Amino acid sequence: MKTRRYIAIAALAAFLLDQLAKVYVLFGLNLLERYEIKVLPPFVTFRLAWNEGINFGLFSGAEARWVLIAIALVLVAAIYIWVMREKPGRLGAISGGIMIGGALGNVLDRFVYGAVADFLNVSCCGISNPFSFNIADIAVFAGAAGLILFTGNKKAG
């Protein structure tokens, strides 16, 4: 029962953080019209990018929207089932929940907007990064890293 609770709380936290940040940046800071806001120049910029595909816009297009939503929902279910079977402990369950919450944040974007709202742009050291991402992307990445680090380490015996 604890595993389910850890997954649910982590998923809800990641999902809400992502969606609240998007609402604040898109509508509160009016990034929809401003397109770009320099937050900590030259390192952090809010730069709006609508991602219709997967990473770096691959597989984009209106026809791919529903396919990508379906794939994401299947992956969310698979992660949930796997974590429930694996019972990886608190950190593994939290990692799975963070990953699920991030994926669902991007699913909601695709459903509501037709594309994922990316707005975080980080550049460094004289190199200008042309790509933007969002908190859901961070959650998916961090959750996946956590699942790698905190699962499958059971010793035989």
Give a short summary of the structure.
The protein has 157 residues and is of the alpha+beta class. It has helices at 2-28, 31-34, 64-86, 90-113, 135-150; strands spanning 36-40, 44-51, 116-122. Helix content is 60%, strand content 13%.
Explained architecture:
The protein is an alpha+beta fold and 157 residues long. The chain has one domain (2-150). Helix content is 60%, strand content 13%. The protein has a three-stranded antiparallel β-sheet with strand order 1-2-3. β1 and β2 (44-51) form a beta hairpin. α1 (2-28) packs parallel to α4 and α3 packs antiparallel against α4 (90-113). The chain is globular, with a radius of gyration of 17 Å. The model has no long low-confidence stretch (mean pLDDT 89).
Question: Which terms summarize this structure?
Answer:
157 residues; three-stranded antiparallel sheet; single chain; 5 helices; alpha+beta; 3 strands
What's the SSE blueprint?
Blueprint: H1 2-28, H2 31-34, E1 36-40, E2 44-51, H3 64-86, H4 90-113, E3 116-122, H5 135-150
Antiparallel strand pairs: 1-2, 2-3
